[in-house]
Amino acid sequence: MMLNVIFNKDSLIIFSFVFFIQILGLNFLLIFFKKFFIRNNLFLNLSYSWFFGNAIFSFLIFFLFVFKKLNFLNLNIFLGLSFIMIILFIFLFLKEKRKIKLKKSSLIYFIFKIIFFIPLIVESLTSFLISWDSLAIWFLKAKALYLDQDIMSFLKNDNFYYSSQAYPLGIPLVISIYYRLINNINDQVVQFYFVWFFISMSFLFFGLMIYFFEKTFSKFILFLITLNLMISSIFIIYSHNGYVDLQLGYIFLIIFSLIYFLITEKENYFFYPKMIFLGLGYSLMIKNEALPFALVSVFVLLVFSFLNLGILNFFKKYLFYFSIFLPFFYWEFYRRTNLIPSFLDGNLIPIKENLTRLKVTFNYFLIEYFNTYKYGLNLIIATLLIIFFGTILLYKGKIKKLLPLLLILFFQIISYFYVFLITPFPYLIQLESSLERIFLHFIPLIYFLAIVFVFRTIEN
Amino acid sequence: MIRRNYFYPLIIFLFLISFHFYSFYQKSFLQMMNLIKDKKYPTLYEKIQSENPYYEIWLFAKNNKNTYFIFEDKSDKNLDYNTTYFKQKQTGEKKNYYLSELKLKIYYFFYPKEIKPKSLWEIIYVYQDGLKKGDIIISDYELDEYWEKINTQSYAYVRKTPLEEEYDKKFKDFYKRLKRLPVSKKKFIPVNRHPEKPYYIYQVVN
Fold first, then answer.
1. DSSP type of residue B79
2. Least Cα separation, residue A142 to chain B (angstroms)
3. CA distances from A319 to A55, A343, A436, A446 (A)
4. Of A2, A135, A161, the CB nearest to B33
5. Which of residues 78-107 of B touch A (CB under 8 A)?
6. Residue A33 phi/psi, 5° resolution?
7. Distance linking the first and last C-alpha atoms of chain A
8. pLDDT tens digits for A135-173?
């Protein structure tokens, strides 16, 4: 049966699809960020390449969508592109072979990790779609993008108001491309694409652990810590149930880590802002919740550049990269001119009576934060580590470099409070139904901060 | 000086706790594989889908059956604030919009065909004459229950308005044209999911 699940046409195409995005990302890093690629270990490269592969792929299909050329992509074209990508990768890899560190132990841990997550992968291939948002938003839009000549009729249909029509189209577009490749709708196996975000997040954590603690702890212990972070029930459930919140958490984590590297490695200053811009542009194609994150990240970039480069030099060098936000602005313009509604339109100023909501929201957050059933002990331990090692760093006067990260995290959390303050819907219902998903956006950031706080204390 | 090795038992202990819970999911993840092993459906997709609590609805959508949807459960739990808000913004008049899980599934499975929800009253008075043999009616309200109710002896003694009498008569005519189709029992038990509300399927037989 297992073989039947793996070796059928739709499954093989989804594996190729994921593989294609991964290779696209690897090529992208090898061509444009060679130094970064060579410096990284296998797991960091796998994770960053998955991220940038998705970013590049999403931008490309967004342009195809804008110019109404989605029909261009079919299985033959895809196979041709895959072939070119693989050849290009072999060529680039062989060219840099000597410089790339590929340890045997890393390959063994890679295989271990995949074996460990096989049940999850199997489930992602063999589960029917049932969760609310997947059917109400993401997969419904993907279906509309695949079946309809023009998505506008769907977006303007008031029977589908519930589908959050104003949400960006990044994920539904990717799903619809897969449907085009198989020339059918298969909302079961496509969940493998989602689970690969989860696995890539575990690669990222493991890669970061190795990067920071290789000399301090054994790889096996780092491997266990990573698995421990990843197998809390909430991560497992949201890894492939059709929601995109864990995927957004992964995207935030990648950008967050790049901002950390930017702040701490001045010698590589010239390429991190480009990567961050690209990441932020991509995040805005996924979900509206990325907007506060993108805003504060750009603010951090500007302040940092002002201090290090001078703001004029920064704009001279990176002005072009602001164009990465074009898909976001295009989508905002498109939906506003076509009157596609968003519940936040015209509701941005909170009214005085709603201020009492803050206290209730805070209590809900607090209760959720200490929910060990969902998050295990990880979230509590990470918080304690941040407080403890943060205090040490504060006393040593070494915390300054980490303040931008704390600011981003703080701003992101505050933005959720703000939304609950202005929402025109019964906020308690919204709060209860969305809180755990909101947590998925920033829990990885808290884990990352804990790792970095420990590392910097040891280092100093 | 605290040595790093001192942390190892703690890390292993924490991992084992997490793994204990993960192994619970691990088992459930393989549950579907075992269930679909012996199923006789043409595709793997359908084998898996046959364990979906809404499988029958998916099947009607797949076979492009002419389907009507009776949506009666207008409880607060089904109130969709999103849509209500947008409709109010559009017209200035608050009109509640209801969205149940059943409705969500029907909309998803049948897309791009729109199966607009109707009340039982509408079906009986407006659409009954247009029903054809083989048409499908999906309902969140058990018609058999109402049928039994109006056929009890005690109901005969209840005072009814002429309108109510007419409604019951039309309902009886309607009900006699239907055959209830069974919703197959699903063996798959998803983790962390509330059981879905029951729904009822009828086929027009004459």
1. B
2. 11
3. 19, 32, 37, 31
4. A2
5. 80-83, 85-87, 89-90, 97, 99, 101, 104-105, 107
6. -130, 55
7. 54
8. 999 999 999 999 997 888 899 888 899 999 999 999 999
Judge whether A286 and A248 are in contact, CB under 8 Å. yes
Backbone angles phi, psi at B35, to 5 degrees: -70, -35
CB A43 within 8 A of CB A114: no
For residue A129 the two structure tokens come to: 């779609």
Q: Is the ipTM of this complex over 0.90?
A: yes
Inter-chain touch B83–A158, beta carbons under 8 Å: yes
Dump pLDDT digits (tens) for A323-371. 999 999 999 999 999 988 888 777 788 888 889 999 999 999 999 999 9
Contact A343 B85 (CB under 8 A): yes
Q: In terms of CA atoms, which chain B residue is nearest residue A346?
A: B89
Rounded Cα gap, residues A443 and A287, in angstroms: 17
Q: Decide if B35 touches A, using CB distance below 8 A.
A: no
**Minimum distance, in Å, between the CA of residue B123 and any CA atom of chain A:** 20
Taking phi over 0 as left and psi of -120 to 50 as alpha, with beta for the rest, A376 belongs to left
Cα atoms found within 13 Å of the Cα of residue A400, Cβ hemisphere only: 4
Instruction: Compute φ and ψ for A86, nearest 5 degrees.
Output: -65, -45
Contact B179, B135 (CB under 8 A): no
**CA A55/CA A285 separation, integer angstroms:** 9
Query: Which amino acid, one-letter code, is at A295?
Result: L
What's the pTM?
0.95
Residue in the structure block whose two tokens are 């804008």: A66
Residue B10, C-beta contacts closer than 8 angstroms, at least 6 positions apart:
none
What values do phi and psi take at A103, rounded to 5?
-80, 150
Cα angle A328, A329, A331 (rounded to 5 degrees) comes to: 65
Instruction: Give the C-alpha separation, B160 to A327, whole Å.
Output: 63
